[in-house]
Design goal:
The structure holds two protein chains of two kinds. Chain A has nine helices and 15 strands. By secondary structure, chain A is of the alpha+beta class. Chain A has a single domain, classed as HIT-like (HIT family, subunit A, 2-Layer Sandwich). In chain A, the strands form three sheets. Chain A has a ten-stranded antiparallel beta sheet with strand order 3-4-7-9-8-13-14-12-11-10, with helices on both faces. In chain A, strands 1-2-15 form a three-stranded mixed beta sheet. In chain A, α1 crosses α5. The longest helix of chain A has 19 residues. By secondary structure, chain B is α+β, with helices and mostly antiparallel strands. Chain B has one domain: HIT-like (HIT family, subunit A, 2-Layer Sandwich). Chain B is built from six helices and 15 strands. In chain B, the strands form three sheets. Chain B has a ten-stranded antiparallel beta sheet with strand order 3-4-7-9-8-13-14-12-11-10, with helices on both faces. In chain B, strands 1-2-15 form a three-stranded mixed beta sheet. A two-stranded antiparallel sheet of chain B has the order 5-6. In chain B, α1 crosses α4. Chain B is globular, with a radius of gyration of 20 Å.
Chain lengths: 340, 332
C-alpha cells in the first residue's frame, strides 16, 4: 500500500508509492552523467577574483571565489522596488559568485580530500559573513549543481555557487514559517526534535559524525534525498559551522561518496539552508528587530543533498506533490551499506 | 538588466531576464522529441485487452473494451495511489502520515499512436476535455477524494514513460500544496479587494497586450508575468468561474480550439518540445467563489538546478513578453 507522508516543516505531502518500485526501468530517465573533454574554464580561470584561500601570501590558491561569468543577479546600482499594476518588481540587485573548489581538474566533490572540502565550507562561511555586511541583502544561499541533469554545464571541475538576494526566497519563507509555528506551539526547535527522533529510530540514518547527522527525510522530494544537520542548534550556517568545519567535511565526503559509488556517479545538487540575515544591530533602525524575534531559537541550519535520478513530471509541477518510488527507509539502508 | 518579479497570488519571487538579453527558442539545449512513427503499443486500437478494463470511453456503437473508440480512460497499471481502503491519518513523533488512498487513471486520448495534441481535430480535443470533465465529476462523488488533478506529460524529458498520447487523472485525498497556495492567495485578495485576482490579471494582460498569445470568445491565453519556466503559457476562461466541470458544449469547443492552437504554437516555435500541462481547478466541495480555474502549459526546455530547489526562486531566461511574441508569430 502506498503511503502519504507530510513534511513536518512546510507541510508538503509526498506519496511514497511502494508498488511502483517494482516498475521496470524506474531510473530509466537518468542519463549517464557525462562530461566534455577540452579546455576547462576553471583550471585556467580569468574571472574577477573576489576571495581566495592560499597557504601563504603569494602562494598558489587552494580555493578561489570569482564573480560568475553569467550572473543571475548583479550588485551594480542599488536596490529598488516598483509596482507594475498587480505585480511587484524589484531590480536584479544581488551577487552571484562561483566557488572553484580545487585547482585540480576533479569533477566530483566526493573525490576531493577532506581537507579540501573543509576549505570549501570555510570559504562559504567567510563569504556569508562578508555578504551580511551589505544591508540590502536579506538572504544568501550556497549550492552546488553537479552534472548536467542537475543544471550544470558538462565541465568536469568541482565548483559551487553563492547567491545573495535582496528579498527572502519563497522556499526559505516556508521553512521559516513552519519552524516558527512549531516553536510557538512547542517552544522547541522542530529540527532538534526531528534529529532526536531520527537518532532514536535509526531507520533513516545514512551516516553520523561527532557533530553532524545525515539521514534521508521522512517525506522526501527525491529518491535518495539526504539531509545533513548539525546536532548542535544554530539557525545560522556561518556562525554555527565555526569549529566544526572539519567534522562536516568528513561527513559530506562520506555522504557524497556513498551516493557516487552506490548510484553510479549520478548528478546531484546540494543546498545550504540558513536563516536570513537577522542580527539585532542590523535590524535596529530598520524595523527594530520586530521580525523573527525567535528566529535564533526556532530555525536550524542544514544541508540538503538531492541526487537527480528521476525527472519531475506534470503531476509534480502542477500539484507540488512529489512521488517517491522507494521509501526513504530503504534508500537509507542502501546508502548505509555502501562502502565509503 | 534582469528583473525580480513577485507572483501576485502566492508571493513567489522569480528572476526574469530582460527582453534584450532573452534566450531565443533555438538557444535552448533540449533533447529532440522524436516519435517512433508507426509503432504499436498497449494503448493502440485493437489492443484493448492489454489494458485494465476501461472506466469510461467515447465510442459509438461498440461494446466496452473493444476497438472502435475515440478516447478511453483506464486505471493505471502502476498506480501512485490505491483505490481500496479509507484514509487513516496517524502520527509518529514529529511526522504525520496516512495510507495512500486515491485513484490513478490514464486517459488514452486517441487510437492513433503517433498523434500530437497540436494536430488533433477539434472533435478529438473536445473528446479529451469531455472525458476530463466526466472523470472529474465521477471521482468527485467518492467522499474520500478532495481534489482531482488532471495533467499530461509529453515526451521523455517531461516525465512521460509511454509514447502514445495520454493524460493522467489522479484523485487525491488532500488538496495539493500548489493549489492550496493559489486558493489561499486568491481568497486573501478577494477578501481585501472584493475582486478575483485572476480576473484582474486577465484584465491587466488584456490591456497590456504584450504577453497575450491568442484569445477567442470564451478564453484567453498569455505568458504569465511571473512564470516558473520559459515559454510557460496559461489559458483562462474570460468569465469568472471556479468550476471546470460545469462547462457546456459551446465553451468546451472554444477550449478545445484554444488549447490545440497554443499547443500548435509551442510545437512550431520550439520544434516539438517535451511538455507538461495541468489543470488548476477548485477542490471537490469548495464553496468559495474566489478561485478561477485555468490550464498551465510548461514546455520542457531547462533543467532545474540547486538554486531553484533550494530557494523556490525560479530563473527564467526568456522574458514572457518575448516568449509571447514568438508564440504569436509561430502560427499565422
Amino acid at each position: 500500500m502506498p503511503e502519504l507522508r507530510k513534511d513536518p516543516v512546510i507541510g508538503r505531502w509526498v506519496i511514497i508509492a511502494t508498488e511502483r518500485a517494482r516498475r521496470p526501468g524506474v531510473f530509466l530517465d537518468s542519463e549517464k552523467n557525462t562530461f566534455d573533454d577540452g579546455p576547462c574554464a576553471f583550471c585556467d580561470n580569468q574571472d574577477k577574483e573576489i576571495f581566495s584561500v592560499r597557504p601563504y601570501s603569494g602562494a598558489s590558491w587552494r580555493v578561489r571565489v570569482v564573480e560568475s561569468g553569467t550572473p543571475l543577479l548583479s550588485n551594480k546600482g542599488s536596490f529598488n522596488r516598483k509596482a507594475h499594476g498587480l505585480y511587484d518588481v524589484v531590480n536584479d540587485y544581488g551577487t552571484h559568485e562561483v566557488v572553484i573548489e580545487t585547482p585540480e581538474h576533479i569533477a566530483n566533490m566526493a573525490d576531493l580530500s577532506q581537507e579540501q572540502i573543509r576549505m570549501v565550507f570555510e570559504t562559504y562561511a567567510l563569504r556569508y559573513s562578508e555578504l551580511e555586511k551589505n544591508d540590502s541583502f536579506q538572504y544568501v544561499i550556497a549550492y552546488k549543481n553537479y552534472g548536467y541533469a542537475a543544471g550544470s554545464r558538462r565541465i568536469a571541475h568541482s565548483r559551487s555557487q553563492i547567491i545573495a538576494t535582496s528579498v527572502i526566497p519563497f522556499s526559505a519563507k516556508e521553512k521559516l514559517a513552519g519552524a516558527k509555528k512549531y516553536f510557538v506551539y512547542h517552544e522547541r526547535c522542530l529540527y532538534c526534535d526531528m534529529i532526536q527522533q531520527e537518532l532514536q529510530a535509526k531507520i533513516r540514518i545514512v551516516a553520523e559524525s561527532e557533530h553532524f547527522v545525515a539521514f534521508t527525510p521522512f517525506a522526501p522530494r527525491f529518491v535518495f534525498e539526504t539531509w545533513v544537520m548539525p546536532k548542535k542548534h544554530n539557525c545560522d550556517f556561518a556562525k554555527g559551522v565555526v569549529g566544526y568545519e572539519d567534522d562536516l567535511a568528513g561527513l559530506m565526503k562520506i555522504v557524497l561518496t556513498k551516493i557516487k559509488v552506490g548510484l553510479d556517479d549520478p548528478a546531484y545538487n546540494y543546498v545550504i539552508h540558513s536563516a536570513p540575515f537577522h542580527s539585532v544591530e542590523r535590524r535596529a533602525g530598520k524595523d527594530s528587530g520586530t521580525k523573527w524575534k525567535t528566529l535564533a531559537e526556532d530555525y536550524h541550519w542544514h544541508i540538503e543533498v538531492l541526487p537527480r535520478l528521476t525527472r519531475v513530471a506534470g503531476f509534480e509541477k502542477g500539484s507540488g506533490f512529489y512521488i517517491s518510488s522507494i521509501p526513504p527507509e530503504n534508500t537509507a539502508e542502501f546508502l548505509r551499506e555502501v562502502k565509503s | 538588466m534582469s528583473e525580480v518579479r513577485r507572483d501576485p497570488v502566492i508571493g513567489r519571487w522569480v528572476i526574469v531576464e530582460s527582453a534584450e538579453k532573452s534566450m531565443k527558442p533555438a538557444d535552448y539545449d533540449k533533447s529532440v522529441h522524436a516519435l517512433g512513427q508507426g509503432a504499436v503499443c498497449q494503448f493502440c486500437n485493437g489492443r484493448e485487452a492489454q489494458t485494465p478494463p476501461e472506466v469510461d470511453a467515447i465510442r459509438e456503437g461498440y461494446a466496452p473494451n473493444t476497438s472502435g473508440w475515440r478516447s478511453r480512460v483506464v486505471p493505471n497499471k502502476f498506480p501512485a495511489l490505491r483505490i481500496e481502503g479509507e484514509l487513516d491519518r496517524r502520527g509518529n513523533g514529529v511526522y504525520d502520515m496516512s495510507n495512500g488512498v486515491g485513484a490513478h487513471e490514464i486517459l488514452i486520448e486517441t487510437p492513433h499512436h503517433e498523434k500530437n495534441f497540436a494536430d488533433y481535430t477539434i472533435e478529438e480535443a473536445v473528446n479529451v476535455i469531455k472525458l476530463y470533465q466526466n472523470r472529474s465529476a465521477s471521482l468527485a462523488r467518492d467522499k474520500r477524494f478532495k481534489y482531482i488533478m488532471i495533467f499530461k506529460n509529453y515526451g521523455q524529458s517531461a516525465g512521460a514513460s509511454v509514447e502514445h498520447a495520454h493524460s493522467q487523472i489522479i484523485a487525491l485525498p488532500l488538496v495539493p500544496k500548489y493549489v492550496a497556495e493559489e486558493l489561499e492567495g486568491a481568497h486573501k485578495y478577494f477578501n481585501f479587494r472584493g475582486r478575483c485576482v485572476f480576473c484582474d490579471m486577465i484584465q491587466q494582460e488584456h490591456q497590456d497586450q504584450r504577453r497575450i498569445i491568442t484569445s477567442n470568445d470564451a478564453f484567453i491565453s498569455f505568458c504569465p508575468f511571473v512564470p516558473r519556466y520559459p515559454f510557460e503559457s496559461w489559458i483562462f476562461p474570460k468569465n469568472h468561474n471556479s468550476d471546470f466541470v460545469t462547462m457546456q458544449d459551446q465553451e468546451r469547443e472554444q477550449l478545445a480550439g484554444i488549447l490545440k492552437d497554443v499547443m500548435l504554437r509551442i510545437k512550431t516555435c520550439l520544434s516539438d518540445p517535451s511538455y507538461n500541462f495541468y489543470l488548476h481547478v477548485k477542490p471537490v466541495d469548495y464553496e468559495e467563489k474566489s478561485y478561477h480555474w485555468h490550464i498551465e502549459i510548461v514546455p520542457q526546455l531547462t533543467r532545474i538546478a540547486g538554486f531553484e530547489w533550494g530557494t523556490g526562486f525560479y530563473v527564467v531566461r526568456t522574458a514572457p513578453s518575448v516568449a509571447a511574441e514568438y508564440l504569436r508569430s509561430a502560427v499565422k
